[in-house]
């Protein structure tokens, strides 16, 4: 880091401030004096903006031209191009579209005529989510904002003729949720990208004339608080100029103090560098991680983009969603729950139902989730799957995934809490304290849960253990 130079200025200004009087706003902020260099060694020293770890739950939206066929998911174009002559994508096209139909032909039907961003934002808020991440551009290259670097292939030139990204950003922020963007570095069929690829990525025409200009444009114009990078697996970070871009993002961009990025910035970078690690899709390691991470997962088990032909069993149940949530939060992750909107701009009722179920659960049990910290132990499988969180102080929360036999919950990991002091135990959403006893020889605490029929929520219960 080029720190010393800036420290001189800082000290200079502080001295002036002292002389000129005390009623000046405190604009001097030591971390702002840091300048990150375009190297991972330097970028990795950046402390992550604290808001992200506190909010825990986000909504991911995969929306684009792929939402028009809504067949197979967001990889439709590539799956179709790579399909066998008698494969299901080729057959789908032969059956439903005229010969010679190209992928670009779908864009005029990306109409979004029912898109009501306020309604979406209200749904996400009621789900208990605190941030929303939209695909600004997926691997197809179509931009959800009117980018001047994506001529003829953006929301203004073809499709809804509406700034979908800008309108959603505004609605989300009006509900006090944080707005962020997904962005794909590569574009499957962009001829400039393919030419660079042909040159083994020794030329950077695509990066310099398309990818980076649009990244600066979208950050400057919409100021996202998260930049969720993807499409990095064919070339390295040198080709994408990732560290140069991130140094600008951290030093000079309008979001430098609040923004976080994930780790998909080139071959061999995921799970090694970035403010938070997304590693691989649906990453859920099940053990405490030393670095902040995020589980980007889907409610439709097999797809990020909407699939018109999905059946009920293709979606996670609320029990499965809460299990994933509990595992993720206990191990220090955030959860980013994906929803695939339709080409008309609606979010189908199955997604709404799952999100509102989550919201109702969080309205009772959110204390165990938001702003929580991992506890000493993450899970316990003695009589029931239990995942722990804590408030970093006197409270430990056990998220109980299955109601135990005879309503007696046995925990193996919390004995020390009970043998040293006499804690108070309760069930969130229920009045009254629970009785418990300790078998120190066996190392087991038995907690008597109330009658299940009197308990407020139906799936996953939270036992709160408060040490005195
Ligand atoms: C739905 O589409 C997928 C292709 O994505 C196909 O594999 C599956 O069989 C279809 N399901 C039904 C019920 O048609
Ligand atoms: C907005 O969100 C922040 C952080 O989650 C919270 O502290 C604040 O009270 C919220 N404000 C409103 C008006 O909801
Ligand atoms: C890539 O190289 C091949 C073979 O040299 C050539 O046929 C093709 O047109 C090239 N593609 C691009 C996009 O430059
Ligand atoms: C990154 O890729 C370029 C182009 O293929 C190559 O010249 C360079 O050596 C690679 N850099 C690293 C660090 O692997
Ligand atoms: C914690 O969960 C993991 C993954 O589900 C499991 O393998 C492990 O046995 C559990 N540990 C305990 C102590 O229950
Ligand atoms: C539960 O225990 C705490 C601590 O001993 C006590 O302050 C509180 O009054 C108890 N609550 C009820 C409903 O008995
Ligand atoms: C729980 O409550 C139900 C309904 O009030 C009752 O039928 C049942 O006997 C109770 N079970 C226990 C173990 O108290």
TrEMBL record:
A biological process from GO: fucose metabolic process
InterPro entries: FUC_metazoa-typ, Fucosidase_C, GH, Glyco_hydro_29, Glyco_hydro_29_N, Glyco_hydro_b
Coiled coil spans: none
Alpha-L-fucosidase C-terminal domain sequence ranges: 378-466
GO molecular function: alpha-L-fucosidase activity
Segments forming domain Glycoside hydrolase family 29 N-terminal: 29-367
Highest taxon, organism lineage: Eukaryota
Signal sequence bounds: 1-21
GO cellular component terms, A-Z: lysosome
E.C. no: 3.2.1.51
Family that this chain belongs to: Belongs to the glycosyl hydrolase 29 family.
Protein's job: Alpha-L-fucosidase is responsible for hydrolyzing the alpha-1,6-linked fucose joined to the reducing-end N-acetylglucosamine of the carbohydrate moieties of glycoproteins.
Protein name: Putative alpha-L-fucosidase
């Amino acid at each position: 880091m080029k720190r010393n130079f800036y420290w001189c200025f800082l000290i200079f200004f502080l001295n002036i401030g002292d002389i000129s009087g005390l009623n000046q706003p405190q604009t001097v902020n030591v971390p702002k004096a840091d300048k990150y260099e375009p190297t991972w060694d330097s970028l990795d020293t950046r402390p992550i903006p604290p808001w992200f770890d506190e909010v825990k739950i986000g909504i991911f939206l995969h929306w684009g031209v792929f939402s028009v066929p809504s067949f197979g998911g967001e990889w439709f174009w590539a799956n179709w191009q790579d399909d066998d002559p008698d494969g299901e994508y080729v057959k789908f096209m032969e059956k439903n579209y005229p010969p010679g139909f190209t992928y670009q032909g779908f864009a005029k039907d990306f109409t979004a005529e029912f898109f009501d961003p306020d309604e979406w934002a209200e749904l996400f808020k009621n789900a208990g989510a605190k941030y929303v991440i939209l695909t600004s551009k997926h691997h197809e290259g179509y931009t959800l904002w009117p980018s001047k670097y994506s001529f003829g292939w953006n929301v203004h030139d073809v499709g809804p003729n509406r700034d979908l990204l800008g309108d959603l950003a505004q609605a989300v922020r009006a509900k006090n949720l944080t707005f962020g963007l997904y962005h794909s570095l590569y574009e499957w069929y962009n001829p400039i990208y393919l030419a660079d690829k042909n040159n083994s990525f020794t030329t950077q025409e695509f990066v310099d004339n398309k990818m980076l200009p649009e990244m600066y444009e979208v950050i400057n114009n919409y100021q996202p608080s998260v930049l969720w990078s993807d499409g990095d697996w064919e070339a390295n970070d040198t080709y994408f100029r990732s560290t140069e871009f991130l140094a600008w993002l951290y030093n000079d961009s309008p979001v430098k103090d609040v923004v976080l990025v994930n780790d998909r910035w080139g071959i061999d970078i995921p799970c090694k560098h970035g403010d938070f690690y997304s590693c691989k899709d649906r990453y859920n390691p099940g053990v405490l991680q030393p670095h902040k991470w995020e589980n980007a997962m889907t409610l439709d088990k097999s797809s990020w983009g909407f699939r018109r032909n999905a059946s009920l069993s293709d979606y996670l149940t609320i029990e499965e969603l809460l299990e994933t949530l509990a595992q993720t939060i206990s191990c220090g992750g955030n959860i980013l729950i994906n929803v695939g909107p339709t080409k008309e701009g609606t979010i189908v009722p199955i997604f709404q139902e799952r999100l509102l179920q989550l919201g109702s659960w969080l309205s009772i049990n959110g204390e165990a989730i938001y702003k929580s910290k991992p506890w000493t132990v993450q899970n316990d499988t003695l009589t029931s799957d239990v995942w722990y969180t804590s408030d970093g102080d006197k409270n430990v929360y056990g998220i109980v995934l299955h109601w135990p036999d005879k309503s007696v919950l046995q925990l193996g990991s919390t004995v020390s809490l009970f043998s040293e002091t006499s804690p108070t135990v309760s069930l969130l959403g229920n009045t009254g304290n629970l009785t418990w006893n300790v078998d120190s020889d066996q190392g087991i605490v038995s907690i008597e849960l109330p009658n299940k029929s009197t308990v407020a929520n139906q799936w996953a219960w939270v036992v709160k253990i408060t040490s005195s």
